[in-house]
Amino acid sequence: MTFLLCLLAPAWAAGVWWLESADLGERAQAAALEAAAIQAGYSARVVKRFRLGDGWEYVTLVEGFMDEGGATSAASKLAASGTVFTLVHDPVRGPPSRATVRPDPQQSEPAARSVASLVQSVRLAHGNATGGAAALARAKVVHFTFEREFSLDRKMVRVSHDYWRDPTSRRVIVDTHGAATDSGTVATTSGAWLKVAGRVESRDIGVLIAQADAFAPEAVLGLALDVPTLFLEKNDQDLVFLEGAEAGVRIGRGEDPIEAGLAFADIDPKSGLLLRVRYVTAGGPVTFAMTGWNERSPGVVVPDVLVVERPDGSAETVRVRVLEVSDVAPPGTFATPENDAPRP
Fold this sequence. Notes:
This protein has 344 residues and is α+β, with helices and mostly antiparallel strands. Helix content is 19%, strand content 38%. The strands form two sheets. A 13-stranded antiparallel beta sheet has the order 10-9-8-7-6-5-17-16-15-14-13-12-11. Strand 7 and strand 8 form a beta hairpin. The longest helix has 18 residues, at 108-125. It is elongated and about 90 Å long. The termini are far apart. The model is unreliable at 1-15 and 97-113 (pLDDT under 50).
């Protein structure tokens, strides 16, 4: 494949020189140019770029030249073999970073606006400041059922949860499908009870409500329901377009930023919905992959499937079955549990 050779920048300019292919629509094309340059004895790599309105493009870079003569010689040698590159010199930026796609200085403001525009589309897609966790907080009754799949004693287990809450009461039923002991929790203004293996025991109301709320949608789905906090407006200026997204567009601060907070988010540019998020905590980075987004109630948009990868290497899959709000819970929802009748 042949591209027009164009030698740029005056010969007196000092700094880093590199060769760059034209923008290519397929990675295989860029990889072929990369292989040809490496076979010729040069250092080469493929850069993935996203251009709003055009989608992903690939560019092959040939690097490591500290003067115009060496870069020109390499360009001529490669052109003779049918892989012709553009000679580029930028003493300020150098070659594009392996992580961050840096905009041209003359295009920095439009690029910044593009990042801000994308973030705003994410906020809107996820219910904005009044949706998500905020919408659930306004609901009188919340019902949430979900399944968790994770490794227990080196075996994958599936555990089902049925969570109810109203302003004064909680109920959680946990079905381990034989992997462990099932349990049920009920807390009301009259008292709190834990039922395990068919036996009911009284518990402290405050403690039991706190334990029950560990299974609330806000706790289980986390950032999927709190996008406004994930993308704090005051931090928008720190976000840039990044390479590495398996799908959609990636923006963020890098793979593992020094400070805790958002590392990167992969976003569907058409819908504004999150696909993958890496978030750095005090204990290390946590990665969330989300698929099958649905609006379960007005303003409450959640994924059908959430996969969480933790710093210790463990992973957990959450499958949402029901998430609904109402004004009144069905009769008997928060009834006091009873001991199972003894077997004859």
